[in-house]
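Project standup — Tuesday

K.O.: blocked on the structure for the chain from last sprint. Re-posting the sequence here as requested.
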Amino acid sequence: MKANRIKQINLSSGAKLLHIQNSDLPYDIVSVWLRAGSRLEPRGKEGMAHLFEHLLMNKTVKYPNKVARLHMLESNGIYSNAFTNREFVYYYHDQLKEGTMKSLNFLLDGLRNSIIDASSLESEKKIVLNEMLRKRNNPVKYIFDLNFRSLFKNSSLAHSVLGDEKSVNSIGVKDMEDYRNKYYQPSNFYFVIISSLPTDKFVKVIDKYLSNFKKLPLNFKKENFSRPAKLIIEKRNLDQPQVSYSFRILSPSVKEIIILNFINDYLTDTWISRLIVRLRLENNLTYWVNGSNYYYHDAGYFSFAFSSEAKKLNKIFSIIKEELDILKNKTIDQKALKAHKISFKSSFIKNVSDPSNLLSYYGSAFVTGRQIFTVKEFLRHVDNITPRKIQAVAKKYFIKENISVSLIGKIKKQAIKI
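H.V.: unblocked you, prediction finished:
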């Protein structure tokens, strides 16, 4: 992969543009990101951000038929998709290089001229409710909703991105219009484009589309977080409980996030990772341990997810604690550190070699206001990780006050020793 060159520009319309000039990809990506995720929804209307994402870009004034618009996109070699999380939502197209400007025009047309009517809204609610049921029936995925309920209780991050049946069914067209008017405006548009085309071409087209766009005051309130719930259990008849052992992380720096990502790889997801070695290879306590960590503009989490027999859980928790204590109190062997850096960099490079993952890497930093590192700069920061830096981050964040355990299965609270 060639080195990425990036440009950040504040557009005259109030929107922002991040242009990743990567000429070795076989196709380009155009996207728009907004701070309009589920944490900004009105109380009682949970699931609205995600439902809105399902509806935007389907029908426009120019293309009032959803199927006809989708056929038009795909006949021009344009693949479209969208994603919503608690912090932001984004819409993206990927296409062959010769179709990039046409694709951008389609994206902008959908952003500005989408039609959301009662019939489409009611139809899409059924899709979302089905999606909700599928997620709830999958403990491996649903455990993360429990994580947020326990790690960020009583906050905007606690409820599910999908909402629940009652909240989704309560959403009307007027609610959608109010949400759109509040958050879907130029000052909240973050365009992220991966293309070797000149930046000026994108600036001209975007500002033209956004001229005379309705604008309202936009303020994001600072949120205070209470201490996480130590343990949350959802009773289900599972042969093996699904478990997530997590830490709440508040306002880490970008360099701390890189170290936390490295620690995640050091502990989970590879055959040389410490928890895989100890929990699977040495003690046969679980099939695998999946690491996960994610950061919003003000908060995030660091999590280990696994399943095991109920009688083995306390032993697993004890080993996790031992490995975290080692990170905090002992110096990692230089040979082991080198091996894990190679493994981590290899995994990272393979991940961002997928253009959609590269888009996510840059876009999530851009929309949350974090400092943006090119891939080359990221790898250089990994090389500069030292045992002392790992210790400092581990001591700061892997503390008793930040721990929360979520569990799905047949087990009593008093049986769990964290």
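K.O.: great, moving the ticket to review. Residues 331 and 387 are 6 Å apart (CA to CA). The radius of gyration is 23 Å.
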